[in-house]
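Re: the 306-residue chain
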Amino acid sequence: MTNTDTKQFSKIVIFGVGLIGGSFALALKKQNVVQQLVGLERNQVVLDRALELGIIDVASTDISGALHGADLVLIAAPVAQTESILRAIYPHLQPHTVVTDAGSTKSDVVAAARRALGNKIHQFVPAHPIAGREKNGPDAAIVDLYLGKKLVITALPENQQETIAVVVNAWQHCGAVPHLLTPDQHDQVFAAVSHLPHVLAYALVDQISKQPQADLRFQYAASGFRDFTRIAGSSPEMWRDISLANRTALQKELAIYQTQLQRIATALEHSDGDQLLSIFSNAQAARQTWIASIESAEKPPREGGD
């Protein structure tokens, strides 16, 4: 990559300058490692706002000009847009430029990249920063969103180590901690610990909103309900795309969860306190073990989904 004025990156281009892309840009600006940050957006109002907030240095609608001389391109748009963005990038992608993404699903993204990039697939390094908030847009971007958070890289066989290193380097400047998984491993894991919880939160709020006396129910909802449903405040468009993109793994997790709910329903039907206590106690112990394992490595979550 080009070293300009001692900075490690001469130009980084970000497709999607909302929460994820905007926070990435702010963190890099704080570290002073990029000569120029260029933003592209399908929404001109969002793009103008990112420029106004100082998240990006240049707001562009010209892909060819934006990509010229770029060291790194980050796609931080909804996963359903990944293939069309990659197809738009392809004709202007210079040999030294590395492309990565921040999508919450990976198998579909890899398949899309292979279709769109063809012989340039070696320049694409799939990734997923495990951080987020339920707020959206440039105004939601924060400089420390990725501090101490995991970055999952699902490197391709075609990727060279120096190509992967460009992506790792950029995210480490944001404070993220790199981890490696295969695309399939990633999608199976996150179907269980991220995609399913979001679906459940959306489903519960939707259910209550459509019941009689919904206003009364919401009036008395307190911290437990707020904590459980917090991620239902995330972008519906984004989570629609994620749910469909990872539908096979998500359907499997939903089936397992339905079985668990049936166990609880049966225990209630038979007044089986021992069964309920067993489920609740195991869940409590598992959660305490999980929390203890991450407390030393991560700050408590600020807010929002991943």
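Confidence is low (pLDDT under 50) at residues 1-5, 300-304.
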